[in-house]
Amino acid sequence: MLSTRDLVRIALFAALIALLGLIPKFDLPFTAGVPITAQTLGVMLAGLILGARNGLLSVLLLLFVVALGAPVLSGGRGGLAVFFGPTVGFLVGWALGAWVCGAIFAGLRRHWPDKTFLTALIAAALGGIVAIYACGIPVLALIAKMPIEKAALVSLIFVPGDLIKAAIAAWLAARILAIRPLH
Question: What is the pTM of this model?
Answer without folding.
Answer: 0.92
